[in-house]
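Practice problem: predict the structure.
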Amino acid sequence: MSVMRSRDVHFVGSFPAASTADAMGAMADCAGPLLRTLPTGEVRRYEYYIRPILEDLVAQGALEVAKAGEWRTLRDLPRYRVPQGKTLSGEVMDLGYGREAAEAMPVFAAVRDARDLPELRLQVGMPTDLSLAFIALGVRGVRSQRAAFAAATGREIAAIAQSAGTEVVVQLEATAELVSMALAQPFQRSLDRRLGLGRGIAGLAAAAPEGTRFGVHLCVGSLHNKGVPLRSARPLVDLANSVARQWPAGRTLEYVHAPFAAGGRPPATGERFYAPLADLALPAGTRFHAGFVHDSPTEAQQRKTLQSIENALGRRVDGVACACGLGRRSRPVADALMARAVALAGC
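Answer:
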């Protein structure tokens, strides 16, 4: 008689810790045998995520602040511009992902060896070029400068792949894409065709060296633990399917992570919200991680949510997760959410 394996646990990326060693150790201690990838913890950028990347680009002289902002709300974000007389290109932009991976790799190796997890891989998260360009420069800047962000992202991915090979899974984090799809509902498919949202995500993978391993984190945003709520699972299903249809050969799509909660908002209840999951069509071997773990419902209520997700999907999910990273939570809440993910994975 075969024993059914527990679902995986997936941690999206950020973690409230003082160091990479503390973050990775905490995640591995809580869920080690259930993890396939271990994030760096993004301890330098866990609170504001994109902000440190853009501030680095200002320090490098690639961008300058056009309008100050306090990062309190989406309306209060600063706006940037390319300095007069300069041309933005991938060659002059250091996004920092390669440095983060290089610094994390020895820590990761020590954590993996100490806990005897030989199959574990390092997970390095990075926003898509569209997400980064939109937050930095707005709609006009996306039209004129997105190619530079794509080139810079591609250069970082290639460097990581060259130095670490299959030891690393690059997680592409598609915030602008999913938020656009959610806001456009019920016209999200036509928006995807017109703007090439799924094609852009797949294009980052196509530009990477053959053999590079990827995951895709669909994201509804998490500024101050607030995100754009979904009215149904339809936008994320349509975006995931678009990415899958256009995924390039020779690059492994390890998983797709889908958020079913929006920051502080708990996941939806009821079968109707999740019904579109019946149409999810991922490549063979691509795992589906359901981001529904939350602190406000009870564990029993979360078990019912998991059942609703799996009933709509027509099978067990491959992994359970929160909707986004844990970095915007206090450490006690983050620890509790990790423990809840482990409990739900085995239910």
